[in-house]
């Protein structure tokens, strides 16, 4: 069951893992798409920035051109202002020049007007382009922010999914480890089951051989020496002692004890009910302390005062019945003689109820005739009178069935054995009817008490008495319900236990035969007790169990340690192989590194100092940070330390600056160290990934094998358990059959011995008579 739950849990986790994996792929695709969109939008922003820069440059050139034209216009206006007074002096000479100047002015005006219009148009275009650029930029920025937020959300989802995947992987690994442990335990149990089945088969075989040999011997003895089979005759079979069933006797004693407790509670409630009813008659409807009650109630009170002499014997009879059921007796209806006594006590109590019933009804009628009795109270009294009649009838019915059950112990022909079950079911029905009647009495009496509580003449003594009667009625109702449910729960057992008696027979013939059987049982028990010999000293059971647990735990721990040692040896051999492989790889890498260093050294020696400077200039993209730090070092005379991408370098002033070769050495050494470190990290990551992949494959294979072995072991366990149960059933049946046969043989042998002794006595008497006759003949 636990393995099925674990397998279901593992399947659920696998399904969730596949779903989450599919969702992760979809989310990864969405993140990639969003990243591509954000990259495209960034490219668009760059293009818009470039176009904006171009427009700004055009605008700057146009403003510069406009300024030039404005200066030119000012110069022309100044020239025009200077030419006007001169024209007045020499109009004549200047007519031709004025015409020329007017023509030039008109040309300049047209040119100026065109430039102004063009400038205005360019301003409008620039303003529109600027506004459009700002709008596009705002849209792109908002879209970029939304995309960034979405990307962050997707990244958070991806992180959560990865965490969840890791958790599920850890859970699956833990479940896998548990399943491996469970599979190992199941394998051990299967081994134990196989050993047990083999032992059982061998024991069964030996037992079968032993019993077959004993059966042959017994059959020979029976055929030779048993004159007749007494189980064929019911009169003789009733005298045979049945097989002792201690469990049945203990169960019957337990049931009798429960019934005794219920009857004691019922007796107590009946005593309280009758006593408080007597007390109520003394105070209602007329209080005996104030006035004389009616003769009817006096007689009724006198009878109720005698209730203990009728109710107490019920408890005593049930107690005697409980004491008669012991572990050594055989409890059936033919042997429960004390049930007749209980039935007689119940009959006397029924007579008491019949005697007080008319007085009780008349007392209720007298209450109804009182002046303060209302219609509701009168109705309740009538209902109570009907309930009392029903209660007496139910007790009579119950006494009839109990008397029938008591007949087999006194009169063998009074009740047939086939009617036992119907009588028991009728007893259960009568008890349920008694419970229903008591519920009605409790309901009606509570209603009556509430009505009487509202009457003006109700005294505190009457209220207290009514409460006591109600409590006793409730106790009676609860006791009747408990007895009814108790009998209903055990009626099947009662019916099934009726067959308990002499074997291969219909039961006891008469109470006399049952009594004789009990005497024979006592004699047989005394004989067996006399034959019992003290056993030799042996190891106590608790100590043997403790030694067995220690032995099993030591063997299990030894097997587990052996498995662990074997696994550790395999791991050590694998690690040694990997160590040799990586040592060879390291040697090859070392040789390659030495060759590379030699090549770099040769190259550096072949190059001149000028070429070194050229190389340094070519690597300016790498050493930009170094040049900036050198410029800062020139401004500051003290040495400065810089932590850049190429390592930690120390520089001083121009007089103490290192040369180019030392700097190149530092850079080369730093990059070589960095390359070595990155290659080692890469190799470590590759080795870890390969190891993890191999371990995952091995674990998956082991898990599949473990599941297959688990299924096979479960099937083997089922088959083994079925075989064991079948063998045990066969063993028990064979044991019982052989024990029955042996008991029959022993009985037949006893009867045969008795017949042989009788025949010997007859032979002796015949010999004595023959001797006497011979003596008489001789004397004659």
TrEMBL record:
GO terms for biological process: regulation of intracellular mRNA localization. Residues 3-72, 137-196, 558-592, 696-737 form a coiled coil. This is Protein phosphatase 1 regulatory subunit 21. Residues 11-112 form the Protein phosphatase 1 regulatory subunit 21 N-terminal domain. It holds the Pfam family KLRAQ. Residues 84-104, 760-780 are annotated as: Disordered. GO terms for molecular function: mRNA binding; protein-macromolecule adaptor activity. It is found in: Early endosome. Keywords: Coiled coil, Endosome, RNA-binding. Residues 95-104 have a biased composition (Low complexity). It comes from Moschus moschiferus. GO terms for cellular component: early endosome membrane.
